[in-house]
Amino acid sequence: MKSMDKKSIRTTGNVGLWSRRQFVSGLVAAAAATAAMPALVACGSSSASSGSSSSGSSSDESYTLVEAGKLIVASDLAYPPMESVPDGATDPVGFEVDMMKEIASRLGLTCEYLPAQKFDTIIATIKEGGKADVGASSFTITDERKEEVDFTDSFMDSNQALVTRTDATDTTEDALNVAGKKIAVQSGTTGEDWAKENLTNATVVPLDDTIQALTGCQTGLYDAVVADLPVMKYECTNSYTDLQVAIEIPTGEQYGIVVSKDNPGLTKAINEALSDMDSDGTMDKLETNWFGSAL
Questions:
Q1: Is-same-fold flag (52-157+254-291; 158-253)?
Q2: Integer Cα distance of 153 and 201 in angstroms
Q3: Of 182, 172, 74, 91, which is closest to residue 128 (Cα–Cα)?
Q4: pLDDT one-digit tens code per residue, 75-94
Q5: What is the pTM of this model?
Q6: What architecture is domain 52-157+254-291?
Q7: Is the dihedral of CA 265, 271, 274, 279 positive or negative?
Q8: d(Cα 288, Cα 104) in Å, to the nearest integer?
Q9: Quick count: other Cβ atoms within 10 Å of Cβ 219?
Q10: Any idea which architecture 158-253 has in CATH?
Q11: Could you tell me the residue ranges of all domains in the chain?
Q12: Do 271 and 152 meet the contact criterion of CB atoms below 8 Å apart?
């Protein structure tokens, strides 16, 4: 864990207006103003804690938080093993949840998750501000998204996967790219983008989350699902054993944490925490815990 002396507090200057005394002589006035200067410097500003930074105290390294002492996270919470709320539970669990808790701890903060958000609204929520500090929902870093928000450094590589039932006969891209085939995706994801671009003859069905998509494929409502490979491998192994990853699609994607463009100091602080976690083996431990091995 980072030592607490690496934290710094953002300061905001308060400008005071001082009335000039009138003296009989201009020389006396000048001397009085000169003598008063140190007091003006010492008393003319105050500090207000609005966030912490990983080092230094300059404004470009400081950051603001929605609520002091907390790192508030927006997520769809429906993407196990990355993030989800198990049946009967109230608190989220998952690889990315544990990662965000560790990041918050290293910044001297408490990690708090908002109730589940729709995936395709999270970037707008972070851009608008005032509700959450970051978005952490297995976001692929893309140029289009970077026009709206900032991303931290990547913390995980990912490709796409096309999932079908294990007893399906149409399991290739060509066999599924025909009229009448229904391909389920999560709305607003890179999986949706890939399906619309490459399965142009099929019907792409956007849904709120991949659990809906997988369940629909399992029951025969949809012919296939396109979503992130690490999660699809996990789901087909642990929960949807009658489904399979029929195609691994090499898209070369990377996950990052979403941060407002107005809060670059927070991006920097999180990047330093991620770098430390990678160096000290924490990321490998989290991956092994949730995926069975380091990725």
A1: yes
A2: 36
A3: 74
A4: 999 999 999 999 999 999 99
A5: 0.77
A6: 3-Layer(aba) Sandwich (3.40)
A7: negative
A8: 21
A9: 9
A10: 3-Layer(aba) Sandwich (3.40)
A11: 52-157+254-291, 158-253
A12: yes
